[in-house]
Write a sequence for this structure.
């Protein structure tokens, strides 16, 4: 029997229930490792990104700081902060890590901030190219380049993926996926608009291949070989998810819609969207397995779990981690983020404890095949 361990960082705001029932041929065991220590002096308001290396970095979108903890969960320090000065930011569009650095893309200040892994400020790279706005995800590519996911300001160009050089001076190339997935879209214009804010999940594996799942997940993962500059060359079918991925309501009012996950206006029409099947994160383990986190509605319940694909991207199975009963017209959107770096394959769960308090627990997840 082959045994692997899996990391995930995920974040949700409801009473936590972890289910370790096995589906398909995979068996999962969850082992609690530590609790990140917080108190009145160490407040975590809105932790949207967690990166684990030799240290644990928690990006807090309330005070715009990166809080640092050791592996045991003990608080060490914080850096960043709200402002326009060196090392300060007005937003954290994306927080990511390279081999030796931590970086934040601050769109409102039009700059990328770079720190050491210890949190020492190094430099700021000011973005001069107006094409680069509001990236939603970043992956390192060949150490010196960055692959960013965002839509260009030009509405005629549907490119979603963009490779930039190390200092963001030059866009090396761009490519799109819209034409490939458009046939599956129920309302292509609405879904294209949604992709500007929630493009989906990406990862670049050790062989230089990009894997992508749209945010509205219909059970298909797409592969792009970055080394050959070819178009999307493979698709992989995962867990059997219904094409009924969202409910759409057209409204007379604008603004937030109660009991719905997303609301926005398009061509003078106000929409409210209830999400039923979404992609929430993707990464490759050190053993070469592709892990894809998804959330979907089934039999009146909201399920959170992950798909597992082997080194050849054959689908192995789905594992449910969290189940939440859906009561009445309660919104089904639960935010979950994944980002994994270290070799220990840790899982970070952030639970809302009420009155603005967050509890972050660290787990190890073992999968036996």
């Amino acid at each position: 029997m082959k045994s692997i361990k899996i990391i995930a960082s995920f974040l949700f705001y409801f009473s936590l229930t972890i289910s370790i029932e096995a589906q398909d041929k995979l068996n999962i065991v969850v082992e609690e490792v530590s609790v990140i220590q917080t108190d009145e002096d160490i407040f975590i308001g809105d932790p949207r990104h967690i990166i684990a290396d030799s240290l644990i970095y928690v990006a807090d979108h309330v005070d715009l700081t990166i809080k640092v903890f050791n592996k045991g969960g003990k608080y060490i320090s914080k850096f960043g902060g709200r402002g326009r000065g060196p090392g300060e930011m007005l937003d954290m569009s994306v927080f990511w890590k390279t081999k030796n650095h931590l970086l934040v893309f601050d769109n409102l200040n039009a700059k990328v901030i770079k720190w050491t892994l210890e949190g020492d400020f190094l430099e700021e790279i000011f973005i001069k190219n107006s094409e680069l706005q509001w990236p939603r995800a970043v992956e390192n590519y060949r150490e010196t380049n960055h692959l960013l996911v965002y839509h260009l300001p030009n509405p005629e160009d549907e490119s979603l993926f963009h490779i930039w050089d190390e200092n963001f001076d030059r866009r090396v190339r761009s490519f799109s996926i819209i034409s490939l997935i458009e046939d599956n879209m129920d309302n292509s214009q609405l879904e294209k608009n949604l992709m500007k804010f929630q493009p989906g999940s990406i990862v670049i594996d050790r062989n230089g291949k990009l894997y992508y799942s749209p945010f509205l997940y219909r059970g298909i993962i797409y592969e792009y070989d970055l080394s050959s500059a070819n178009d999307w060359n493979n698709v992989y079918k995962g867990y059997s998810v219904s094409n009924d991925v969202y409910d759409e309501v057209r409204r007379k009012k604008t603004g937030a819609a109660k009991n719905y996950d997303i609301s926005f206006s398009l061509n003078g029409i106000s929409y409210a969207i209830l999400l039923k099947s979404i992609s929430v994160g993707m990464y490759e383990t050190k053993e070469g397995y592709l892990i894809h986190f998804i959330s979907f509605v089934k039999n009146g319940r909201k399920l959170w779990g992950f798909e597992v694909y082997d080194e050849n991207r054959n689908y192995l199975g789905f594992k449910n981690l969290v189940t939440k009963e859906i009561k009445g017209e309660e919104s089904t959107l639960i935010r979950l983020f994944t980002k994994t770096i270290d070799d220990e394959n840790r899982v970070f769960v952030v639970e809302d404890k009420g009155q603005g308090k967050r509890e972050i627990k660290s787990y190890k997840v073992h999968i036996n095949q």
